[in-house]
Amino acid sequence: MKNNFYITTPIYYVNDIPHLGHAYTSFVADTISRYKRLSNFDVYFTTGTDEHGQKVENSARDKNINTLEFTDKVSARFKDLCSKLKLTNNDFIRTTESRHKNKVQKIWNKLIDNNEIYLGNYEGWYSIRDECFINESDIKINKDNERIGPSLDKLKKVQEPSYFFKLSKWQKPLLDFYKKNKNFVKPVSRFNEVKSFVENGLEDLSISRTSFKWGIKVPKNDEHIIYVWLDALFNYISVLEDNLENKYWPADIHIVGKDILRFHAIYWPAFLLATGYEIPKSIYAHGWWTINGEKMSKSLGNVIDPNYLVDTYGIDQVRYFLLKEIPFGQDGNFSEELLVNRINSDLANDFGNLVQRVLTMIQKYNNGNIPKADNLNENDLSLIELPKNIYDINNVQMNNYQFNIMLENIWKIIRSANSYVDNNEPWNLHKNNNLKRLNNVLYTLVNTIYKITILLQPFLPESSKKIFHMLKQKEEISFSEIKNDIKEGVKLEKSHPIFPRFDKKDLKI
Q1: Spatial distance between the Cα atoms of 296 and 294, rounded to a whole number of angstroms
Q2: CA 333 – CA 352 distance, rounded (Å)
Q3: Alpha helical stretches, state H, 39-139
Q4: Rounded Cα–Cα distance for residues 370 and 173 (Å)
Q5: How far apart are CA 231 and CA 353, in angstroms?
Q6: In this structure, what DSSP letter does residue 2 have?
Q7: Which of 94, 322, 379, 468 has the most other CB atoms within 10 Å of its CB?
């Protein structure tokens, strides 16, 4: 019986078009999902769009269109991105859907029944960009004597009636939970930030607004709109319809950006405890991408459209770069030149060239048939067995989602295989009519390529399918097959380049 595994991206806010950061988060969640499926897990992977709040209402007003029409258009772009990136998500949730609204209103009534909410008045400085009130300790004053929040937006003084969630009562239960669940937030540095924030004390949380209308109405008091974060976070449960909630909740991992960690690691567990739900098993906060050394920002005009990157360089090429370039959890720098360098060196030169020349030699020297091995030597067996050894090592790295290390480990096999080609010189074996040794060398190499491709499926899914096709194999092969060799005598498809090279003179970003 398969183990269940539930993974989510955050739901993406629809005040603007998708950018590189959204693609990165989605690629990460998709990579983990594919890895788990290949490891025989029953995976449920969800993504979607967060469509309520004052920021969305303002964006629609600025464009002079109906708010629902605005959210429909922007949400469609995010859904199209899922198709463009060929994500394997099982569902796409929108917070404007009735299934979500109904769930959130039931949650509200549950909080009322549990005496977790009370009506009061709130006065404070509100960040429209972050959709939350900002603590005085986090506010800075700019040169125009205006209050600025952590996201560098100008804060607005808000005074209005508000329902409050009794967040303060959950300080000790949260700290107790963190103490017992030291892997709840990754990486560790983020976990320490979360614990420190809670240790400094929690105030009750304003969870309704009356100054705008775009959101889910509070049951029995429709002058109030439910706080966008209380609304949005419950997408992770509202998306699990019918019996899926019983099957998959609690989530195994939420993948989020570090800027929304506080909402996921403090408010979300408190909401869940207050309503009787189990807390998710882990939350991983990844870093930000800078663009040519500068923080990605609409105002700076350096927001990168992932559609351009995929259309220009290919899905797997972009995916590989984003996963390989930085340790997951840290900030990283993106430039088109770095992307091209990585494609040309790692994909085209190292792996692509290995596949191309080995399969070409099998066509040339053995009529396209995988040769029969006869008494492989120690070096042959060592190379064929290396992928299985790396797989065992990578399974440990996967516990902390260290994709860059996992890919580097796979590239050790690729470099070893390229050295093996150079050392054994199959062209000279053919020239000297040493056919037995030639067959052993080609058999060793084609099996190594086959097993490398098995390992690379979560990271290079489209390219892996192309290689398996040339090897006359299934499109997808379980990790359990890593111990088995490819069959002798299979007649291979003619090889063709998998990873084209790119010229730096064509760079546009």
Answers
A1: 6
A2: 25
A3: 54-62, 67-84, 98-113
A4: 62
A5: 50
A6: P
A7: 322
Buried/exposed 235-254: b ≥16 CB within 10 Å, e otherwise: bbbbbbeeebbeebbebbbb
Closest CA to 162 of 243, 224, 75, 108: 224
pLDDT at site 133? 72
At residue 154, the pLDDT reads: 82
The reported pLDDT for the residue numbered 303 is 84
Q: Using CA atoms, how far apart are residues 506 and 16, in angstroms rounded to an integer? A: 28
Please choose, from the candidates 26, 92, 9, 27, the residue with its C-alpha nearest in 3D space to the C-alpha of residue 461. Answer: 27
The crossing angle, in degrees rounded to 10, of helices 435-456 and 353-366 is 140
Amino acid identity, position 265: A
Nearest-angstrom CA–CA distance, 273 and 176: 12
Tens of pLDDT, residues 442-483? 999 999 999 999 999 999 999 999 999 999 999 999 999 999
pLDDT given for residue 156 in this prediction: 76
Low-confidence ranges of the chain (pLDDT < 50): none
Nearest to 61 by CA among 173, 218, 180, 212: 212
For 151-201, the pLDDT digits (tens) are 777 887 777 899 999 999 999 999 999 999 999 999 999 999 999 999 999
- The structure tokens listed for 389 are 């050894």
In terms of Cα–Cα distance, which of 270, 272, 264, 289 is closest to 193?
264
Rounded (10°) angle between helices 54-62 and 67-84? 100
Quote the CA–CA distance of 228 and 213 in Å, as a whole number.
11
Q: Peptide bond preceding 250: is omega within 30 degrees of 0, i.e. cis?
A: yes
What pLDDT is recorded for position 141? 86
For residue 122, what is the enclosing H or E element? strand 117-127
Q: Which residues pair with 6 in a beta bridge?
A: 44
Distance CA 246, CA 243 (A): 6
Q: How many whole angstroms separate alpha carbon 146 and alpha carbon 154?
A: 7
Runs of H (alpha helix) within 268-314: 268-275, 306-313
CA atoms within 13 A on the CB side of 128: 15
CB atoms within 10 A of CB 60: 21
DSSP state, residue 489:
T
Answer whether 380's CB lies under 8 Å from 440's CB: yes
Amino acid at site 373: A
Q: Which residues of 461-495 are buried (b: 16+ CB within 10 A; e: fewer)?
A: bebbbbbbebbebeeebebeebeeebeeeeebeeb
Cα–Cα distance between 496 and 360 in angstroms, integer? 9
Are the C-beta atoms of residues 24 and 393 closer than 8 Å to each other? Answer: no
